[in-house]
Amino acid sequence: MPKNDEAALLAAAQADLERSGLDKSDFKRLKLEVLTRDETEYFVGEARSSYKIPYFDIAGKQITYARVRFLENGKKKFASVEGAQRYSQPANSAPHVYLPPYINWRTVAKDTTQTIVITEGEKKAAIACKLGIPCIALGGVWSFKSDKRDWDLLPELQEIDWKDRAVEICYDSDVMHKAQVRMALSALAQELSQKKAPGSIHFVFLDAETINDGKVALDDYLVAHGVDGYNTLPRSEYKGTARIQDLNTKVCYVLAEEKYFSMISNKFFRNFSHVREAFMHMGSEVIDGKRTKLAIDLWGENANRRTVVNVQYIPGEPEMTEDNILNIWRPSNTQPTKKKPSKWLELVNYIMRAAQNAKWFLQWLAYPVQFPGTKLLSSVFVHGKQQGVGKTLIVDPVMEFVYGKDNFYRLDNDALQSQFNSYTARRQFVVTNEIYLSSYKDRRAAMGRLKDMITREKVEMRELYQPRVRVTDYCNYYLTSQHADALELEKNDRRFFVIEAPEERLSQSTYDEFDKWIRGEGAGAVLHYLQNIDLKDFNPKAAAPNTEYKDQVIDVSMNHFESFVEDLVNDPKDMFTANGVTSEWQLRKAEDLLRTFQKRHPDIRWPITTNKFARYLTDARIQKRKVRLSQDSPQITLYAVLDTEQWTGKTNKDWAEHYKQFSTKFGGKGK
User: Fold this and answer.
1) Which of 332, 377, 458, 593 is deepest in the core (most CB within 10 A)?
2) CA 222/CA 172 separation, integer angstroms
3) Which residue from 234, 214, 227, 121 is spatially nearest to 174, judged by alpha carbons?
4) Closest among 373, 554, 371 to 476, alpha carbons compared
5) pLDDT at 461 over 80
6) Cβ contacts of residue 572 below 8 Å, gap of 6+?
7) Amino acid 213: pLDDT
8) How far is residue 256's CA from residue 265's CA, in Å, rounded to a whole number?
9) Collapsed DSSP state (helix, strand, coil) of residue 149
10) For position 210, what pLDDT does the model report?
11) pLDDT of residue 543
12) Model's pTM, two decimal places?
């Protein structure tokens, strides 16, 4: 980079360090490096000038992991980055703890008589260590662990002997009093206390001062008051009993809802009295050496009780997000095994009938496996009169073993019509069990609900005795029925992929062998297969591909009015001749055609108006024109139902004269 630019960046970086009590010699000691916008973008994906902070292992050797401290807010160079993201690291990099190279950490790690301070932010730990306080820095309040890598404590923390060691946790003055940060403090203290049994753990509270508009961090305080000042700060001992920590795994307080939430039942409590009633069985604790008090009461009063910002169902994300949101999605316990699931694929190919159908269906099943939380805008409907052929069997192992039994729901006729829908808010898949509503009216109403359910992004969760909550809808749908007309599909439907299952069952031994296989090595094989299906040509938001079976269902689904209009468009001469009406009468009103329909279906007494019937004709794009039969008569709409092409170039007068002539002759009102 040009020398002028490098000098400007270096000056900005050193000015930032000076605010934390560090100088030019520390810049070299910490092995910091200034980065231009382009260099920063290459390293962390964001084009803002910065300086790189390398990390060190317990032996003081520099490792490959590093973070950056931005020097600009994205709009103006060297402007304050307050209010914007101040630090970043390479995407998908494993987290580490910062061990400033002023301390012999290998010695400190073994010497349990030395107190270790834990803070958030590299500069704070650096000045503390420079002043002789062994201080470890975390990149964030939850960065002592990694859910993605299943680390309760990061490897560097596990290298330290915590037994009988005093520990102090000191975060910024403004965050120490935030409930979500205190939750992170408690979680860190719990890990150290239960797994490493330190001598004592204290939270250190920085005095509120006029530094930085009332906010004070560890580096600010040390610059202003030194080590002696730090040693006189108030401290609060962590007193997490086993019962209280056990309760923290079962119940929490939710800030967004101002309610308590049970992680056991996945339900909210309206008030603490309901929580108390539910957890009285957790027993009592001795207080003051003689009195006892219910553990749940102590939990409710304890500053270390579990508090979260919100509770959400977020497939694919860790149990606790960086924003302190409790994620109630739980992955399947199945482990993938690299074996071809031949028995399952044999059954899938049999039900899907054709290779192209099987390919799309497998991609449809696999997409939310590879991209958890995907809302597919298509659904699968498999119908067939033969029971036990395998319509549901091909998805059962995927739901139970791949997605997990807590992430899918079996829908029946009653649930489809019910106003209570809590299952849709906490599932990735819904599977029907031979759905069919005998009433045409009920089927139409259910179809309307299904259309919305398949494509909606949000859903208002309705549950008995529970508050209504609007949440993200992750549900995808697999539907089965013995009846082809279980769904009322329209001609332009985009949502449903339709298959008619074979009429004959495979041999009983095939099903028996499949059941034994899937409960053994088969589940892991299915998971591995779906995890590795090529999805490059699959669009989760695209319309479901058409099949010959879908066309058949559409034909069955059409009501008598739609069927009549379909015949009117495709073969009107045969239709009129079959009903004893001449084909000479080519232009007709909706009410004339309605009378023809009634002659064709004399037993049907469904209520339908002329206007509603006219909408069927308009939807079918039948050529129409508004004309007057005389100068003083009102306008009427005529439809060209026979020899339609010849009427395109005719005048309104031609249309009117034809109608007057033939409607009077063949039974119309002629007006």
Assistant:
1) 593
2) 12
3) 214
4) 373
5) no
6) 583, 641, 642
7) 53
8) 19
9) coil
10) 46
11) 93
12) 0.56
